[in-house]
Protein 1
Amino acid sequence: MIICTNKMEYPLRTQCQRVQKQVMVNGEKERVSLLFTKAPVSRGSVDAVSQQMASHPQYLESFLRTQHYILHMDGPLPLPYRHYIAIMAAARHHCNYLVYLHSAQFLRVGGDPLWLQGLEVAPPRLRLLNHINKVLAHQPWLTACSHIQSLLKSGEQCWSLAELVQAVVILAHCHSLCSFVFGSDTDSDFASLSKSPNGTPPTFCPFDAANGNTNVPQSLAAPSEHITRRRSLDSSCDMVCLKERIQKSQEEREKREERLLQTQTLQQTDMEEEEEMICFSDPSRFITDPDFCYQEFTRREEDHFQVFRVQDYSWEDHGFSLVNRLYSDIGHLLDDRFRSVTTLPSLHSPDLKRAIWNYIHCVLGIRYDDYDYGEVNQLLERDLKLYIKAVTCFPDATKTPVCPLSWALLKPSERIHVNLLIMEARLQAELLYALRAITQYMIA
């Protein structure tokens, strides 16, 4: 994936600038088409998340730029580590879509396929992230300075501060993206393909179905009020050919598995075949302590939970500068996402958007002293609050969240906007807890 911006240098920057000059400012159709040429693709097929976000091209551009930077651009972590961390994060919410996507990308960047057999065979350094991964995913208020210290002082397996910051950003990015995937129902169609009648993974990967189809579908180039979820298999695909391909893959599967046991590395010519077999790794393989999940944030005396007050540690005054200093430029990219999602043209009033944002932070233990929380109950109907909390705190349990009745008259783009607000508010909340713990470690 290549994202061309004025702030970054890319081999095709000049060419992209020429294309961008041809796009009229008010031509949303043209802008969406251009964004899809830059969207993350797998074998040429536009991914489902980008299709959902296409109704908000301004935000989509910011999202793709950030995602590309943390997963593919310069940074302290090697590429296989980045995608494996993304797998660990998505697995906490049993998000098949993201686990399969990053499993395939993990292999393409040279990751060891044996690691996909489960967390127990991953390098010890990656396994050390397991605790902070589950805490950030489910109960981020438990993130403590001691967690940071244990990672930075683990002998031969210790992490550097720069590595840990990038890892935390990837974890928070993928956790929050899980909320969007489930909230927009992106995972449901994909999950059905990952199951076969006998309970074993199929031997083909839906990312291969497009077979190099890089054209943007007409329905995506011009978003309508009846945008439907992308099916993992192209509707124009010849079913006869597909069945023949599946049958052929099944015959070759045993040979591939035998070869996999004999060697720990794969030749580049065999990489794509192995991707088809392994990209359907069961998310549960990467989870320990599966019963650890979201619990109501309370201030019960026996738990000693303290409310995170933004006046004491905020993104603008503290988190932004710290993360930008330890992981160059990521602060600017993240800040652009936060600003973009809250300033998108929308039928939702600024007060409503702020109520959604602050409510999400509230259920995660973050409070604003200068905000009247009575507005939350005034502006958010009960069914909308239940939906927001479900998608934010336990998206994997909801699977297909019940949309509020009040959404019946909303445009699809307005519904997506709410899911984007949920994702970004959750992302910022996790980052605040992690960065505060890192700050406490640095000044201790």
Protein 2
Amino acid sequence: MFSVKNSFFCVLKTFPNISVRNFGTKRTALDEVNFKGRSLLTLKDFSSDEIKRLLWISRDLKQRIKHEGQYLPLLQGKSIAMIFEKRSTRTRMSTETGFALLGGHPCFLTSQDIHLGTNESTTDTARVLSGLTDLILARVYSHSTLVELEKEASVPIINGLSDLYHPIQILADFLTLQEHYGSLSGLTVSWIGDGNNVLHSFMMTAAKLGVHLRVATPKGYEPDGGVVQEAKNLSKQFGTKLFLTTDPMEAAHGSNVLVTDTWISMGQEEEKAQRLKDFHGYQITMQTGAEASPDWTFLHCLPRKQEEVDDQVFYSPRSLVFPEAENRKWTIMGLMVALLTDYKPNMPVLKF
């Protein structure tokens, strides 16, 4: 029922709207990549080929389900526990609807539903949920909670967001850019904003995909020093450029993609007045874009505040924020399928 068609020409005939330049013409070592049963706490732990395979699977599922209308109950009979210490629109909706679309049963759990780390230890929660579900996604305040869950669970753990990393967001961002530009290698991404978990995930991923990274953060809001050192090592290993500055315009110079995020994350509300002062001049506008490459685009993981990016950019044709938000669904689906099954994509390998 789910036979794999390996012929490139057969795929072109079946999917006539696919641009040839977006795909390789033959399968590669990515065919051999398998991470069934693994956890994803940070993309630091995933190789270049593993990240590429996740994007390939995600694009393949999107093509088959969204564009071809196929029903693929790949996760039928399986369930996922979704632990949310922090609220979210995209993480909840993408995971819940995606798992259900694949035939599985999602279970949404807030701090009012379970007693993670309070009336019941994280260790006990991990062991209990391992006996009841096939997968656990946790959106938490402290990354150490994920580390403990992964240590004690016997099922894969997915980081739905922590104070240190947000890997599932970055998968969606790079799928969006791959779709828009046709390939990723050689692109330059400029981060203009806080040195936060989303930036950390960019820094653990960009070089592995051949992407250059330019970063502007205000003084006192720099990314984690250990993450910076690891990113420097990755850039050297993969031959990409990593540039750090406090000047937004300098960071935007020659870039293909301008990216920002909230300046005030959940739990930082008391710092709002000071942060707005410290981030003065960091709003992304068309003036910022004038420093970038002629083909520049804009990303934001949402929710967005106007001080971070003005309406002229946010709602412009250059903005990819809504395809980016939709791709949260296809990439989390791709990840869940990869961790729980031996799925092999139908379409040829994406061009990276």
Protein 3
Amino acid sequence: MPYALSRHPACCQCKILRCNADYVAATLNLRGSNKDTAYCNALRSYSHCTRKTARTCRGDLVYHSAVHGIEDLMIQHNCSKEGPTSPPRPRPPAPNHQGFESLDICNYEKNFLYKHGQAPTYQHCAAFGDPHVRTFHDEFHTCRVEGSWPLLDNNYLFVQATSYPVAKSSNATATGKLTIIFKNMKECIDQKVYQAEIDNLPAAFEDGSVNGGERPGGSSLTIQERTPGQHVEIRAAYIGTTIAVRQAGRQLSFSIRAAEEVARAFTEEQDLQLCVGGCPPSQRISRSECRHSGIAAETARLLCKEKLPVEDVYFQSCVFDVVTSGDANFTLAAHGALEDAKMFHPDAEKLHIFQTGVGCRLISLPFLLVIVISNLLAIQLCF
């Protein structure tokens, strides 16, 4: 289990990460003529902190690395082992009668900051339209994945999408059902299950509740209806995660902003996750050529351009979906996914993904015959 979410009693934890955080805070903005003196003070404080936590950290590699690192730095900067130390870093306000554990263990961001001295990092994943999957690593795939496939499967969350064909004789599919399981976390929530299907986007969990239950941290999991029947948002503060579920036309979409260590909390056996590894190669389809289903590619481009002025993968996916399905509502799916990405993606510079050579191309039968005949004539001329 990730350190920041450890459930062991505070008295038995190795607190070397707190020592690290205090040292980083003390040396972060050193300036002026007394910089060297202040640096040595910080190293002596660091050394003192590691000695205090030595008993509980004897088997911790981070602890031993810190001890050796301090010795090396003291030699490099000619610091004496005895002398003044840095003033202690201000601690969070003292807990009330409920105690720190019951107040903060279910607030992931606050708990992470308290233990590491810095804010957590986040990742974004989305599945919308055909479905198109944007992974936590900003890879982008269009998938057939008919049936049920896991988007996420880790220590805290399980998310499964069930897809169906959008048109006869087409490889394209769309998500018709989403199942989201927030796994039991002893200090914070009971296990909660959320299920959405086309034309049934509830604003409550499967048991009728709208939070994590009667446990002290139950309010750290909440569900809100943003647009009735179209947009639901689930906030899981106890794991630093927010999920958006939308319906546009005859398909559902899923977006998530998850703390990085939560997204990575899985075993080798949980290796099939579309948000982590994308679609398996056998399930990927090209967006280069679209099977016509009532709406021409140029018309689809105009429809998509109204909602998506930047011709990135969201725009390309929109064109593909509208042409393949014949349903103009797929413009709303791509637009909603982009709006979620604007809110959820931690790096605004990576919001748009551009892939060349994947635009929707329709080849008519007469034109295809012309190509075949031309190739045959070229072969004959060679002889």
